[in-house]
Write a structure and sequence with these properties.
Helix content: 25-40%
Radius of gyration: 19 Å
Strand content: 15-25%
Number of helices: 9
Length: about 300
């Protein structure tokens, strides 16, 4: 079993103490967002073959990474650095600080252990194609040698994303758009070339209709090959994506929606930042689950 922590929220940034407590207890509880039923997830060393951590701020998570490494479980970090204006992401670390974190992670755990995410690519009057080319080049140059992959994707305009971006645009006076496929292909090709020049493989997350761009391959965010390289032995699993077009290996995610307070207007995992802030304030690091309340009877999950 691979544990994902978490594409639903930023556990390293906001819930590191909870994760350490659950690691020591060797289990956590997770609520299925589509049925509401609670599952018990086995986090013992014998049950977990690897961890994939997702974050925009790894600084609070150092002790947790050391604890995972001490028990011999391989892990990788998917770290998002986009460098967008504050009206699009109000609470993330400054770009230079985030870049320094990736460099530090690479020095401590090796470049294979960290993947840079420039994700999603948001086209707006503040961040047009020229802006992205310049911004991406600067970050890629700064990260040269610290990672060998950058994951890209274009904004998926889900209903809540459209609503939250629309509110931010109205409040701060900018426009955003979902460009046609030809424009996306052109920009993706340029970003891919910039990444390659910096020694990184450009991959694309869950957008197979754009994979005809030369030099771009499908991202595997839950990546058995990378985990195997880090572990120094094969990490087994099967391909089982989270949505159509996803090329990831099977995993169990232990996060919860509407619990991240990074303030990204384009985020698909937060319906209401006010709700997320309230849930973070009410969070109990000693609890079995990230967000308690309204639980149905627990069902054991082996992950095998």
């Amino acid at each position: 079993m691979i544990i994902s922590a978490s594409y639903k929220t930023d556990i390293p940034a906001f819930y590191s103490r909870w994760f350490l407590n659950r690691l020591e207890a060797a289990h956590c509880l997770m609520v299925n967002p589509y049925g509401g039923r609670t599952h018990r997830i086995d986090l013992s060393a014998g049950a977990v073959d690897g961890f994939v951590f997702w974050t925009r701020n790894a600084a609070p998570f150092g002790d947790a990474l050391e604890a995972v490494a001490a028990r011999g479980t391989p892990f990788m970090i998917q770290m998002t650095v986009t460098g967008y204006p504050r009206v699009l992401e109000s609470n993330v670390p400054e770009t230079a600080r985030a870049v320094d974190q990736i460099r530090a992670l690479a020095r401590r755990w090796g470049p294979r252990a960290v993947v840079w995410r420039y994700d999603p690519v948001v086209l707006s009057s503040l961040t047009d194609e020229r802006w992205h080319r310049t911004n991406f080049t600067g970050i890629a140059e700064a990260l040269k040698g610290s990672t060998d992959e950058v994951v890209l994707s274009f904004l998926q305009p889900y209903r809540k994303t459209e609503r939250n971006l629309g509110s931010a645009a109205s409040l701060h006076g900018f426009d955003w758009r979902d460009p046609p496929v030809d424009e996306k292909r052109e920009l993706l090709a340029d970003l891919a070339a910039i990444a390659a020049d910096a020694g990184m493989t450009p991959t694309l997350c869950t957008q197979p209709h754009l994979l005809d761009v030369p030099g771009v391959s499908a991202a595997r965010c839950i990546d058995l090959k990378r985990l195997s390289d880090i572990a120094g032995l094969p990490v087994a699993g099967r391909r089982k994506g989270n949505r159509p077009g996803c090329d990831c290996a099977e995993s169990r995610d232990i996060g919860d929606y509407d619990t991240c307070t990074q303030g990204c207007a384009y985020c698909y995992a937060v319906n209401s930042r006010t709700v997320a802030q309230r849930r973070l304030k009410a969070h109990d690091p000693e609890g079995e689950m990230l967000r308690p309340g309204g639980l149905k009877p627990a069902m054991p999950v082996s992950g095998r």
